[in-house]
């Protein structure tokens, strides 16, 4: 499941995908996981017109409003992206460009105060016939400002810094003035949702619970079957951009262990292999299927619950637990066979490895059972038989993982085994994958849990909802962990227009996150995808985004 990477949504939560394998394409040549993308890119003009794409997802959204607290999942954002606007789009190389289907131009027209002026595409219209306008921007900015009473939002980053949104020379010109500078302003209004959704706290929370009521994209809702867990989007003939090649896309909930069978019997047309040896081996034997692979910005990690009522509320206890977890062992066990070289745990939450600003800070909390044991002793958690206890309370941590998920269970058992060696008891709880995020992670119903985050081209705005802490709105900080130091660094970084200085601040934030035990990064997720060979412009998208209108069949 995903709370996705790009722009305002910024980062994504995803279920763990697989165990290890050394993948090859069906033809036998090695995969190339360092490629920017591997999607069988072809000019849409060369593709067949029409057809259906059957797309596996993890769940039917409980709310189609991706900015609501219960709608901020990757499956939701992935499906909605085929139907709603965004001001920018990310390319496979990580660069961000304007989405000119919706925005003709966007530029800084004043630096003090910061004013950004958008010029909207005059052809862009909502499905209710109304043209996109400055009013949609104004309504979204107010709803996500953090000041609107009753709006339970998943992020306020950037929007909280806007002082006003005004009409420019006409309804298609949008002038946005910031009360304080927000350097990553390109991250905002992605997606852009209609003003009717944001009219009131009630419409924001409830009106899109069953389906998106107003769209503006190459596809629109065709049907939703919550019982059968099938969602169909169909080509929207009122779309003003490049006509979609497909007639429709059918999103079907398929549990991870059943993906290979579903691909083999025609129920779906591709799936993410991740690092699953089973899904990889099965894909090689399915006729007409190829394996594609590219670099991915997703990383797996352990999230700790540091809320005041939690057993892990003490930062020193969390870092002691981190010292007892050998991320290198977990990384090798889960993805060791994928890599052509040494598998190293993730050392930075802000920047992916290989990027110029990446700094490995894992050494701030190195794996050391001796350190873990001595810290636990100093905190009063003494061995009492096999496990530790303090003031009559045993040190027991409840680890929640999604089921069915072989890799999720594998990581949980590795953590359980490692922590047992330092005297910490870990009880494992499996949660149905369809409700793992909404009923367990989002509600803080865990001591430890694990899922994937997707790193953003906007490291400050992309991570602020996760790592800063506002008790009035914890946003995506599911562990309720933070510090004044981190909050102040985010405030400084969001206003810093110099890219190098902003990157340095981001790295300082990451250092502080290690020190307080906010989460424990584990490993980067491999990007392998099994897909029918006749499908173009779909596969391993790397750092880019799916171009829904361009996806189609070669014959």
Describe what is shown at a glance:
This protein has about 550 residues and is an alpha+beta fold.
Descriptive account of the structure:
- This protein has helices at 74-80, 134-143, 201-206, 259-264, 277-284, 315-323, 327-335, 369-378, 406-420, 436-441, 459-467, 484-494, 499-516, and strands spanning 13-14, 52-57, 88-90, 96-98, 103-111, 114-120, 162-167, 173-178, 219-225, 230-235, 248-253, 270-272, 289-292, 298-304, 382-384, 387-390, 393-394, 396-403, 425-432, 448-454, 519-524, 529-532, 535-536, 552-553.
- It is of the alpha+beta class and 555 residues long.
- Strands 1, 14, 18, 19, 20 and 21 form a six-stranded mixed β-sheet that branches.
- The chain is globular and about 70 Å long.
- The two termini are 32 Å apart.
* Number of DSSP E strands: 24
Q: Outline, from the CA principal axes?
A: globular
Low-confidence stretches: 1-31
Radius of gyration: 23 Å
Average the pLDDT over all residues and give the rounded result.
90
**What is the share of helical residues?**
10-25%
Question: Helix tally?
Answer: 13
SS content category: alpha+beta
Note the beta-strand portion.
15-25%
Distance between the termini: 32 Å
Major β-sheet profile:
6 strands, mixed
């Amino acid at each position: 499941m995903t709370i996705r990477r790009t722009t305002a949504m910024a980062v994504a939560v995803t279920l763990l995908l697989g165990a290890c394998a050394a993948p090859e394409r069906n033809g036998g040549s090695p995969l190339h996981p360092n490629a920017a993308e591997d999607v069988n890119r072809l000019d849409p003009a060369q593709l067949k017109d029409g057809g259906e794409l059957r797309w596996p997802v993890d769940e039917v959204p409980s709310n189609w409003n991706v900015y609501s607290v219960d709608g901020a999942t990757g499956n939701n954002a992935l499906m909605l992206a085929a139907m709603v606007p965004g001001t920018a789009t990310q390319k496979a190389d990580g660069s961000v460009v304007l989405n000119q289907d919706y925005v003709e131009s966007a530029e800084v027209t004043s630096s003090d105060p910061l004013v950004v002026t958008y010029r909207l595409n005059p052809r862009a219209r909502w499905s209710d016939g109304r043209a996109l306008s400055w009013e949609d921007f104004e309504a979204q900015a107010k709803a996500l400002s953090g000041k609107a009473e009753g709006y339970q939002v998943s992020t306020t980053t950037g929007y909280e810094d806007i002082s006003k949104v005004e009409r420019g020379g006409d309804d298609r010109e949008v002038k946005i003035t910031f009360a304080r500078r927000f350097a990553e302003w390109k991250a905002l209004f992605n997606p852009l949702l209609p003003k009717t959704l944001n009219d009131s706290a009630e419409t924001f929370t409830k009106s899109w619970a069953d389906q998106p009521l107003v769209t503006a994209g190459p596809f629109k809702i065709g049907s939703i079957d919550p019982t059968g867990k099938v969602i169909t989007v169909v080509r929207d003939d009122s779309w003003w951009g490049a006509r979609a090649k497909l007639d429709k896309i059918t999103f079907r909930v398929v549990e991870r262990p059943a993906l290979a069978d579903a691909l083999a019997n025609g129920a779906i047309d591709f799936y993410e292999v991740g690092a699953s040896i089973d899904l990889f081996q099965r894909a090689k034997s399915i006729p007409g299927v190829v394996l594609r692979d590219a670099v991915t910005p997703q990383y797996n990690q352990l999230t700790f619950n540091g809320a005041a009522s939690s057993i892990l509320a003490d930062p020193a206890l969390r870092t002691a637990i981190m010292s007892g977890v050998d991320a290198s062992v977990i990384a090798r066990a889960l993805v060791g066979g994928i890599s052509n070289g040494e598998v190293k745990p993730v050392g930075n939450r802000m920047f992916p490895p290989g990027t110029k600003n990446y700094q490995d800070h894992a050494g701030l909390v190195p794996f050391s059972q001796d350190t873990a044991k001595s810290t636990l002793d100093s905190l009063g958690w003494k061995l009492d038989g096999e496990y530790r206890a303090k003031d009559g309370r045993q040190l027991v941590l409840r680890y929640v993982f999604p089921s069915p998920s072989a890799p999720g269970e594998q990581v949980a058992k590795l953590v359980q085994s490692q922590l047992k060696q330092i005297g910490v008891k870990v009880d494992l709880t499996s949660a149905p994958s369809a409700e793992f995020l909404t009923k367990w992670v989002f509600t803080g119903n865990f001591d430890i849990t694990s899922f994937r985050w997707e790193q953003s081209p906007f490291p400050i705005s992309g991570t602020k909802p996760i790592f800063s802490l506002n008790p009035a709105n914890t946003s995506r900080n599911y562990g309720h962990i933070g510090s004044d130091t981190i909050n102040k660094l985010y405030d400084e970084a969001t206003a810093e227009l110099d890219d190098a200085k902003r990157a340095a601040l981001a790295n300082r934030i990451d250092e502080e996150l290690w020190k307080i035990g906010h989460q424990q990064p584990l490993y980067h997720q491999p990007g392998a995808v099994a897909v029918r060979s006749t499908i173009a412009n779909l596969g391993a998208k790397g750092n880019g985004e799916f171009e829904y209108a361009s996806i189609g069949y070669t014959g």
